[in-house]
Amino acid sequence: MKYIFKIKYWIIVSFLFICACKKVITVSLNDAAPTIVIEGNISNEAGPYQVKVTRSISYTSDNIYPGVTGAIVTIKDDSTGITDVLTENPNGIYITNKTVGASGHNYHLYVKSDGKEYAAQSKMPQQVMMDSITFLTNSGFGKINVSPQPNFQDPIGVYNAYQFLETYHGVPSKQIFVLDDEFSDGRYVVRPLRNDSTYIQSGDVVQLEMRCIDKNIFNFLKELNRQDPTNGQPTSPSNPTSNISNGALGYFSAHTTQKVKAVYH
User: What is the DSSP string of 84-98?
Assistant: First the structure.
């Protein structure tokens, strides 16, 4: 996951749409001071789970985030009272030993590194199950676009937020798909995941992973989606709002997960 740092910038953009050609965007950016990046996930699938602790790099450096060694990483489950001290592995990966992911449980993450402490919390929502995957087909500009559609019943009277991860030909999509039930509470949802899906052909297998996420993670991913240029969204010179304290970048998410496959015909 890439982060865009708060820095002085200027962007000169020229848009030229001729024969589907794209004009190069020239961007000039100053370097930003390295910042700790924490990415942690707990799901309702069997563990162990991992927390990745790295150090951000300057914008002009290669896309390599060096792992942070010697950190003390713990996770506490409020529901069970269990505190888990994670085991350090290479490349800044810290692995759980006792943590069990379960809906309704509230988890606290604590990271100590270089004399600083960082904290986050995330409550795993109740799971909403995807019924099936269908496909929406439309054509335009000489292409046929195919959008997979997760189908599911949103529970009534309770806030729900969802993230979808798409995989085709075994390759995960880089695009971010999130939605909440602000306008669909209690409804049956059929929502196309619109992207450049001209790669989906008859007979192809598409997998969707449906995650039920908490509101803080929904807001984080929504902001990241707006800022990530790979999603065709405007780029902002700021970082998405993390649920981790003390100025850390990244996120800590306790979420449910379900994977469903479908064949496009």
Answer: EEPEEEGGGEEE-SS
